[in-house]
Task: inverse folding
């Protein structure tokens, strides 16, 4: 009941016309960057981080959450019409969705993706609404040792889940943690890894790393490996929306996709990709006409699209209640909280209930807006897809310049951006995932802080991590996740 | 060793080198006696150790050219060298020009060079589009976000 009252007051604030404008802006930008291949929500939110100096926290987070959600809706449009996934979480959508589009059923595929995303997103937010206060109750009992153990567990699972090889995921994560070490040590005031450069005392800017890895690295890769050439955009011909049969075949996959996607996001493992693959496999097995799979089965669009939106909502649970980001976008949203001097976690719900509940209420509203933006207005997004690649990537690099140079006006940051871009290219070329690096960069310093707090309390005795039962259990889980894959392979 | 595996191996060696560099640099962080047990060195050492171990695993994998470690990447296209050249020109021009000439002109040069790298053959039209985009973004980010992108020549217009 308490939750409903809190949510109600959140709605009252979120329905304020100004906040509605922020939500609309967020979902519109989000859909646009979701549609455009090469731009993603993590990159976009990183570029917009300077807005935290200009507007209040509530407005900024409504905007960012709208972008986060909108990108998931927009990504499916690109998968279906272009056969190039707009987002990594919509790769599976392309399998059946693009086939449907080639048979002239593009509008049915787009509709089941949009309605499925809406259904899954809304259920996901309802689950978030009622699960978050429970997790907060539990998390209030956590001490530094528990937080440190939880972060270590997240480090391992994120590395395992977000890449194809655990070792490469860990390498990316540790690269990010290494970058995060640069700057003044908060506890002792000691400068670390600054190599005498005053520009590095504040640490490496999150924007520079995110934009370097995602925008510059990706552009280099596409330019050198011949991808990114113009592809044909299929027309959204035919009858708008779904037939009765389409609805009958879609609703169960939507619900199953939600059931698969939400827990994946909510556990400290994260990743919207794996649930989409799982959902696809489940739908293929349960289909009444399995022979249609590979030739444009609507279940293969409906399930995975629901799964990725549900996991998006799920990721917000550990992010808001524990301060534990498990996707690159969530990590960047966490750094936005930091720039307001706020720390997500159980105390955020106690100290800033207005902010939290307005944010959650705005998610419900944003979801409705997205349904409208993506069904009747689909033609607008199709036009965005027709931007020629030379202009698209030229524009992305101009945006990257703003991100790196606009914050500090220092050419050092621009050179750093290019250097990180070169690293990003190598990572892309050799199959290293880039999201763990962002998570390591932002979560690494927090993990160090918790570790040292725990050791200060125990007066330097490292046994604190194994004598506290919860911390020990979490660390054991992390060790298991680290070793299990190698053991399984050996059998 | 296959070419892709050579690259993999080089990246893994780079990781080991980076781990060594972190460890070496960590030894130079001064530690006050109060913090001796839980000072600013412990976490960097742990990160260096982890990175070194992971680098070692990846190096061994690449050396054996285990199929799982080698991605079936498309080889760089024949046009890649030319594309890399234009990208390099664009990024360098941007970094050199942005302070003296300002964001708009530097971005125009960057945009035109990148468009060229992606196969466009109409440099003047690209420059015009790039310039229009840069002016719009400059106005948008300066007005709405309050970013200071510098003025350069543009401010005097």
Result:
């Amino acid at each position: 009941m308490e939750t409903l009252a809190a949510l109600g007051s959140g709605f009252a604030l979120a329905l304020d016309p100004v906040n509605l404008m922020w939500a609309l802006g967020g979902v519109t930008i989000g859909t646009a960057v979701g549609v455009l291949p090469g731009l993603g929500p993590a990159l976009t939110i990183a570029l917009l981080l300077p807005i935290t100096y200009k507007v209040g926290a509530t407005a900024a987070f409504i905007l960012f959450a709208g972008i986060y959600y909108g990108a998931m809706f927009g990504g499916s449009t690109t998968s279906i019409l272009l056969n190039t996934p707009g987002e990594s979480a919509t790769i599976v959508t392309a399998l059946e969705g693009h086939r449907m589009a080639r048979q002239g059923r593009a509008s049915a595929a787009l509709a089941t993706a949009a309605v499925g995303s809406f259904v899954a997103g809304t259920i996901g937010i309802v689950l978030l609404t009622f699960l978050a206060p429970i997790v907060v109750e539990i998390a209030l009992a956590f001490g530094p040792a528990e937080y440190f153990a939880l972060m270590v567990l997240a480090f391992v699972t994120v590395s395992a889940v977000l890449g194809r090889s655990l070792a490469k995921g860990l390498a990316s994560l540790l690269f990010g943690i290494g970058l995060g070490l640069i700057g003044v040590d908060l506890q002792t005031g000691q400068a670390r890894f600054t190599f005498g450069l005053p520009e590095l005392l504040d640490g490496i800017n999150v924007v520079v790393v995110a934009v370097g890895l995602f925008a510059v690295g990706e552009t280099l890769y596409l330019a050198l490996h011949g991808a990114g050439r113009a592809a044909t955009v299929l027309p959204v011909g035919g009858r708008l929306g779904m037939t009765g049969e389409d609805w009958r075949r879609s609703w169960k996959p939507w619900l199953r996709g939600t059931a698969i996607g939400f827990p994946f996001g909510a556990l400290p493992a994260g990743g919207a990709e794996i649930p989409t693959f799982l959902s696809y496999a489940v739908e293929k097995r349960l289909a009444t006409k399995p022979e249609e799979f590979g030739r444009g089965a609507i279940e293969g669009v409906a399930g995975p699209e629901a799964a990725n939106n549900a996991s998006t909502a799920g990721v917000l649970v550990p992010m808001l209640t524990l301060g534990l980001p498990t996707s690159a976008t969530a990590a960047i949203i966490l750094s936005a909280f930091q720039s307001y001097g706020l720390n997500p976690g159980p105390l955020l719900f106690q100290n800033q209930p207005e902010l939290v509940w307005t944010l959650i209420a705005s998610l419900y509203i944003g979801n409705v807006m997205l349904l409208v933006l993506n069904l009747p207005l689909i033609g607008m997004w199709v036009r965005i897809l027709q931007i020629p690649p030379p202009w698209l990537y030229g524009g992305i690099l101009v945006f990257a310049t703003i991100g790196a140079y606009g914050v500090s006006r220092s050419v050092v940051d621009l050179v750093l951006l290019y250097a990180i871009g070169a690293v990003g290219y190598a990572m892309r070329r050799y199959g290293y995932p880039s999201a763990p690096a962002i998570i390591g960069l932002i979560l690494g310093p927090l993990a160090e802080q918790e570790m040292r707090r725990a050791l200060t309390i125990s007066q330097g005795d490292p046994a604190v991590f194994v004598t506290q039962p919860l911390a020990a259990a979490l660390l054991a889980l992390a060790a298991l996740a680290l070793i299990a894959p190698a053991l399984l392979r050996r059998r | 060793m296959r070419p892709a595996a050579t690259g993999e191996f080089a990246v893994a060696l780079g990781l080991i080198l980076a781990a060594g560099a972190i460890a070496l640099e960590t030894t130079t962080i001064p530690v006050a006696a109060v913090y001796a047990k839980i000072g600013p060195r412990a976490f960097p050492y742990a990160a260096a150790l982890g990175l070194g171990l992971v680098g070692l695993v990846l190096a061994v994998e690449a050396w054996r050219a285990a199929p799982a470690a080698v991605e079936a990447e498309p080889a760089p296209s024949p046009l890649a060298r030319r594309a890399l050249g234009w990208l390099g020109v664009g990024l360098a021009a941007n970094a050199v020009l942005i302070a003296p000439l300002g964001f708009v002109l530097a971005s125009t040069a960057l945009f035109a060079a990148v468009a060229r790298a992606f196969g466009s053959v109409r440099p003047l039209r690209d420059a015009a589009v790039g310039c229009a985009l840069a002016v719009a973004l400059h106005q948008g980010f300066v007005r709405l976000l309050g970013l200071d992108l510098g003025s350069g020549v543009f401010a005097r217009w």
User: Anything to note?
Assistant: Chain B touches chain A through 74 residues (CB under 8 Å).
